[in-house]
Amino acid sequence: MFNFMRQGQVLVHGADEDTVFEAAIDAGADDVQPAFDDEGNPTNDFKLFTQVEAFSSAISKLQELGLNVNVEESELVYRGTAEVAVDDASYEKCEALMERLLELDDVDNVYTNCEGLTS
């Protein structure tokens, strides 16, 4: 897909930022981001992004290092290569569109590159 790349997304729960960053380097992760709840509030979880080929080995390495990996919610995702900043009205339209698409029975995932929206 244009403007998106396939990556592994590994969710790590309940560790401090320094520990997660050090473990991410050891596991070969490309990026680490804090996770947010549905209302946009920060949690004590982190999302680690890996190459598709390194996804399962990164999970194993993180578990070996003693991190609490949420294996059930870790998955392969399409991640936007460049986020697009939009005004408030456009953001609300994008958000409404995502919500309506996700309500459909035939839709499993919706990916976006709209800045501030999470897939």
Write the topology of this structure.
Layout: E1 4-13, H1 17-27, E2 31-36, E3 42-50, H2 55-64, E4 68-80, H3 88-103
Antiparallel strand pairs: 1-3, 1-4, 2-3
Helix pairs in contact: 1-2
What's this entry about, in short?
With 119 residues, this protein is an alpha+beta fold.
Tally of DSSP β-strands: 4
Helix content: 25-40%
Query: What spatial order of strands do you see in the largest sheet?
Result: 2-3-1-4
Low-confidence stretches: none
Based on CA inertia axes, which overall geometry fits?
A: globular
Strand content: 25-35%
Plain-language structure description:
This protein has 119 residues and is of the alpha+beta class. The protein has helices at residues 17-27, 55-64, 88-103, and strands at 4-13, 31-36, 42-50, 68-80. It has a four-stranded antiparallel sheet with strand order 2-3-1-4, with helices on one face. A hairpin with a 5-residue loop joins strand 2 (31-36) and strand 3 (42-50). Helix 1 (17-27) crosses helix 2. It is globular. The two termini are 15 Å apart.
What descriptive keywords fit this protein?
single chain; 119 residues; alpha+beta; four-stranded antiparallel sheet
